[in-house]
Write a structure and sequence with these properties.
With about 180 residues, the protein is an all-alpha fold. It contains nine helices and no strands. It has one domain (about 1-175): Tetracycline Repressor, domain 2.
């Protein structure tokens, strides 16, 4: 994952993958068939890691809306860190590969849809907790929130000023709570 995050798929060489994995190129080919197979495995591991991370944010016995804010704050911290290892592999792969590879596009879309569904559940819980208006549509809020997160991630690539990213995130959160 780290090699693909640092350089992107196209610029990641077999030497980079050898260094990142500690495996001989023959072992990489044997286990994953090719670089694309390794990317598919990395996307799956990324999904598992991010799903577990997301669930940890909501394991705290706080209101869902508070946990959503904590989750958003974590996204902002990743955006402003400048550390490519904290970037989003889905965003990077989507921008680089989705139009070229239908399977990768479907995997990324599925991962994003899963996150959207998880967010919708959290917004539905926030409505039950009366943290947000019962009139709000949980699915719409989830789509809007996800759009905001991926917008922040993309924007931060070219505008890494912490204050600007934080202000945009605060506006997103404020819009959700209104």
């Amino acid at each position: 994952m780290t090699a693909f995050l640092h350089k992107g798929y196209a610029k990641t060489s077999m030497q980079d993958l050898k260094k990142a994995t500690g495996l001989h190129p023959g072992s990489i080919y044997c286990a994953f068939e090719n670089k694309r197979g390794l990317l598919l495995a990395a996307l799956e591991q990324y999904r598992l890691d991010r799903t577990a991370e997301f669930e940890r944010f909501f394991s705290a016995a706080q209101l869902s809306i508070v946990n959503l804010k904590t989750y958003l704050d974590n996204v902002v911290a990743e955006c402003i860190s400048g550390d490519s290892a904290k970037a989003c592999l889905l965003t990077k792969a989507l921008n680089e590969m989705a139009e070229q590879d239908e399977e990768i596009q479907q995997i990324i879309s599925g991962n994003l849809f899963s996150l959207q569904q998880s967010l919708a559940e959290k917004f539905a819980q926030a409505k039950i907790e009366k943290s947000i208006s019962a009139k709000k549509d949980s699915d719409h809020l989830a789509r809007y929130f996800l759009m905001g997160i991926y917008g922040l991630r993309t924007f931060a690539q070219t505008h890494p000023e912490a204050e600007v990213i934080e202000q945009l995130a605060e506006q997103l959160y404020s819009d959700i709570c209104r």
